[in-house]
Specification:
By secondary structure, this protein is α+β, with helices and mostly antiparallel strands. The chain has helices at 55-74, 105-114, 121-139, 207-223, 230-235, 243-246, 252-261, 273-282, 295-299, 308-324, and strands at 10-11, 15-24, 27-34, 41-48, 83-89, 92-98, 145-146, 155-157, 163-165, 172-173. Strands 1-2-3-4-6-5 form a six-stranded antiparallel beta sheet, covered by helices on one side. Helix 4 crosses helix 7 and helix 7 (252-261) packs antiparallel against helix 8 (273-282).
């Protein structure tokens, strides 16, 4: 594991390291000041490849880093921190992005659990919609961008009440027939990782892998209970308790969404986030029990901002049909 940079170290004659704020097997995450933009703080992710790898593999890894960083720098979505710079310094590569202050959702969940409480369903619906919007945006890129490390600790709540998906450690472009080297970090966090991702970088992950992680993340946030690892579930299917057995305030339709997203085989999951939304709408009759005037918000949990005009009309027609069915 590489030694972290010291406080005061200056990268690229611009970024002044304040302190490490995270550390992994391939490098550290730093809080830094940008001395060209007074008052701006940024997060800098460091990547250092294993020096014992063959030189051609190291060259491929660096080239892949620059390809991935270039993709990230082009993304623009309110739930994604903006990537503003990327560069190399000797044998280390660096990715510069917005620093997001505030607590992550795992911290908020742990605080609620210690008080014997669950996070509010209304808040989780709001955060779920924001994350779903971000995933639709990523998955609709050409080629699609797959995150591969969605988890509660990677979702930070800012001062405006918006969540940010803060770690791009495993991002890959989904290019057909291409085996992608993952260079920015490892292989995900076991609790939220689908079976197909255990194969590493063999090219078998797709947008349904993010859907599994989405479901596992909100299973944890809704129940205060970490989901069993996919490998354990494969051997012991009964190890995954239905969420409502742990937290009876979870709407049945939301439970169905979570369990559908967490299907062990990719073919058992919805094809995309909009299909996951359809499951929620098909269960609309159960949602009539959600705190009266919160019904509309629950319906919109997985609505995408992409192609707003077309999707807005489609959602309006769907909601009209739902309301009409009860008249």
């Amino acid at each position: 594991m590489p030694e972290p940079l010291k406080s005061g170290y200056i990268l690229k004659d611009r970024y002044v390291i304040k302190k490490p704020i995270g550390r992994g097997g391939m490098g550290s995450l730093y809080l830094a000041d940008d001395n060209r933009l007074e008052g701006r703080r940024c997060a800098i992710k460091e990547v250092q490849q294993d020096s014992e790898l063959p030189s051609d593999v190291l060259e491929q890894a660096r080239a892949q880093f620059y390809r991935e960083a270039s993709v990230l720098a082009q993304l623009d979505h309110p739930t994604l921190p903006k990537v503003s710079d990327y560069f190399s310094d000797e044998d280390r590569d660096y990715l510069v992005m917005d620093y997001v202050p505030g607590d992550d959702l795992k911290t908020l969940m742990d605080q609620a659990r210690r008080k014997g409480e669950f996070l509010r369903i209304d808040d989780l619906l709001t955060w779920g919609k924001q994350l779903a919007d971000a995933l639709v945006y990523l998955h609709n890129q050409d080629p699609p961008v797959i995150h591969r490390d969605i988890k509660p600790s990677n979702l930070k709540l800012n001062q405006q009440g918006l969540i940010k998906l803060v770690d791009f450690g495993l991002v890959k472009q989904l290019v057909p027939d291409e085996l992608t080297i993952t260079v920015i970090q490892g292989r995900g966090t076991a609790l939220y990782t689908p079976l197909e991702q255990y194969g590493g970088d063999s090219g078998h992950t797709d947008k349904r892998s993010d859907i599994y992680a989405f479901g596992a993340t909100f299973y944890h946030l809704l129940t205060n209970t970490p989901p069993p690892e996919a490998k354990q579930r494969f051997l012991m299917p009964e190890s995954l308790l239905p969420p409502r057995e742990i937290n009876s305030s979870i709407p049945r339709s939301l439970e169905q969404v979570i369990l559908s997203a967490m299907a062990l085989h990719p073919d058992g999951r919805p094809d995309d986030m909009l299909s996951l939304q359809d499951i929620h709408l098909r269960e609309h009759h159960v949602d009539l029990t959600i705190n009266g005037d919160r019904f509309s918000q629950a319906k919109e949990l997985f609505q995408s901002p992409a192609d707003r005009l077309v999707l807005g009309v489609a959602m309006a027609l769907a909601l009209t049909a739902i309301v009409t069915s009860f008249m």
